[in-house]
Amino acid sequence: MGRTYFVEEAIGQYLSDLSTKFKPYVTGLLIGQCSTQRDYVIHAVRTPPKEEQKEDNIIPSKLASIDEEWITTHASQVSRMLPGGLLVLGVFIIATPELLKDSQNALRKLIFSVEKSLTKRRLWKPTEEEVSDRAALQICSATKKVVCRTYDVQDPKSSAKPADWKYQNALSASWLALDCTVNVNIHIPLLATSPNHDLEKNTKNGLNRWSKQIEDSVFLINGEVKDDGTELLEGQKKLRGNIQSSAHFSDVKVLTQLSRGSSHRSTATVQVCSGSINLKGAVKCRAYVHNNKPKVKEAVQALKRDIINTLSDRCEILFEDLIINEGPHKKNFQREYHVLPQRLFIPVVGSSVMLSDYKFGDEAAGEIQERFVEMLDQSVRAEDIHIAEEPNT
């Protein structure tokens, strides 16, 4: 039995518009959420054209010209803009009948390279029971016929399995949100033996250790510790078929464990250090979960991943910014302060879900709007940009 993808109805119109605009083919990403029973696709976004294609209006005519690296880079950028619970679920291609005949191999390659790139950046490990199927969607631009298949990205030899593609109206209009603010104070020693004082590598190692603390934390939802296996909405009253607004769990507290208890012996290590990195501030974290009897475990896992992702993504963005502005060879070992980019949220039309992004203090709203058009093919009004937090260092 193949998987079933429940798809936001507006995506059908979006894909149909792309099929008339872009010939002979267009590729893109599918964004949504996996669960054991069913998968949800709440957003689709085409691959942005490269600069030279924009200028010359060139559209490659052969599938061999699909730029795997460009699509993979786009997937990495988009994944930073997804709050907890959302991920890149697969890839699509809309093509003429002649090209579609050979497109399955190209899609398979893309799915595996996108997943490999996304996995490399993550500081968390997927669980054993997690869904590892990703979607390959083909649409014929002439007949509009839709064929959906899945590949298991944990198995390099995986072959295609058929999957159902079903449109549904207002699919994510009443998804549940979990919000929390996490106070971060991470001290990362820089070893004297560390070659070239590689700040990025040291920061990643420090974040790796911190992420394990987050994985082991206790999460209070509306002041209670809930059992993993219980339904998130257990005990909530339903109102005319919808959950009351209190189900927007804006009150989640994260309790990190201070010690492992007396049964665990710990040993201290003395290391010679030449400096340290301190990450300090309060970060705003958010996760979304489908409303089809979600379990507490799913919701907490999505929020944990958002906490870990949002900090590691910001550090990555900061290092990229420093390389652009200061060059990779700058070595200044004086005390320096850098402000990490702030998190902001943007609503998705017709959905309760908001997408995320990061801005530096001097970035104007226009730059954020441009980024959303380029990365997510979505226009955003300046008044819809919600900055969620104070600047952090």
Automatic annotation (TrEMBL):
One GO cellular component term: endomembrane system
One family name in Pfam for this protein: ODR4-like
Superkingdom, taxonomy of origin: Eukaryota
Protein localization: Membrane
Alphabetized UniProt keyword annotations: Membrane, Transmembrane, Transmembrane helix
Main location: membrane
Keyword DNA repair: no
Any single GO BP term: intracellular protein localization
Signal peptide positions on this chain: none
Record family assignment: Belongs to the ODR-4 family.
Summary of the function given for this chain in its UniProt record: May play a role in the trafficking of a subset of G-protein coupled receptors.
Protein name: Protein odr-4 homolog
Organism the protein comes from: Chordeiles acutipennis (Lesser nighthawk)
